[in-house]
Amino acid sequence: MISTVVGSYPVIIQPPKTRKNKLFNVIRGNDKCKTAIQHSVKSQVKAGIDIISDGQVRGDMVEIFAKSIPGCKIENNTCVINSKIFTPYQNIGVKDLKLAIKYMKQELNELNISSKDKKKKGVKGIISGPSTIVQSSKIGPIYKNKDLAIIDMANALKSEAIALEKAGAKIIQIDEPFLSTGLIDMEIAKEAINIISKNLTVPVAIHCCGDIKNIFDNLIDFNVDIIDCEFAGQPTNLDVLDSYSTNLKSKKIGLGVIDTKKQSVESVEEIAMLIEKGLDIVGDKNLFIDPDCGLRLSSDEIAFKKLKNMVEAMKLFN
Ligand SMILES: [Zn+2]
């Protein structure tokens, strides 16, 4: 079993401590988000998470990508697609991924982790999914239908996936929260995901939110290694998983065991019960344990305690 997170973490921006740094911030326009990335990385490593994220501290999952992809622009907080979508001129998340890897290594050294355990550790590269970006955008007359835009978006995101892999991502995760809404043609969604995952050498995960009853049959045919879903806030998803226990087509499962909509901290025993159910269905070699979704809406303290208890619960099975 490997522990991981879905992505977002509470954004804690530390004000500069010295007058000199304050001045640098003003003169150089220093990137305030760096301290937020550092905080999220330190917290995740301290909680004992194996594959962490950079905390996705720069805001909305659609906006971050849309503002850098030619063909899209942001108007009144909405992405508008008004010309043909092309590959971005610059990488989007590579700088933050490299920073997160640097901060992770520093923290691991401070915590004196054994070299065997260090090998399990890494940072995931995260991409907002093409279907989700297009579905949450206004589409101008350039695209006769959204399916064509989804495929162009996938081609544009492909270069980002390659760049994240080159920069040292331990896995690549594609976030598609909209797939369970029933608004997306799953054949198009599959074609788009397969464009991104083709030829990547690190494992590729897809993260879906909500009820997977109507989409799981499609998901197991996607060219990805890991299917990550919510199981704490969506207990019926366990029944769906159970019905595929002998037909998972070598997919590993990301088992969401923390309800990220709840502000209370689940007990170690409560989490362990859910892990046990996952273990019974898919086995420990095929299991990634993580929260249901991102932790952005939790307080800093709650987010950390939730992750810590999750790791403690996993230890009961080692
Ligand atoms: Zn989610």
Please, could you describe this protein's structure?
With 318 residues, the chain is α/β, with parallel strands linked by helices. It has a single domain (2-315), classed as TIM Barrel, CATH 3.20.20. The protein has twelve helices and twelve strands. The longest helix is centred in the middle third of the chain and has 21 residues, at 146-166. The protein is globular, with a radius of gyration of 19 Å. The mean pLDDT is 94. Zinc ion binds at residues 6, 177, 207, 209, 293.
Features of the shown structure:
TIM Barrel, 12 strands, 12 helices, alpha/beta, seven-stranded parallel sheet, 318 residues, 43% helix, globular, binds zinc ion, three-stranded mixed sheet
Strand order of the largest sheet: 1-12-11-10-9-8-6
Distance between the termini: 9 Å
Assess the beta-strand content as a share of residues: 5-15%
List the ligand species: zinc ion
Mean pLDDT: 94
Structural class: alpha/beta
Any idea what the shape is?
Answer: globular
Fraction of residues in helix: 40-55%
Write down the CATH topology: TIM Barrel
From the 3D coordinates, which CATH architecture would you assign?
Alpha-Beta Barrel
- The number of strands is 12
Order of helices and strands: EHHEHEEHHEEHEHEHEHEHEHEH
Major pleated sheet: 7 strands, parallel
Kindly give the count of domains: 1
What are the segments in which pLDDT stays under 50 over at least 5 consecutive residues?
A: none
> What's the CATH class, please?
Alpha Beta
Cα-based radius of gyration, to the nearest Å: 19 Å
Count of alpha and pi helical runs: 12
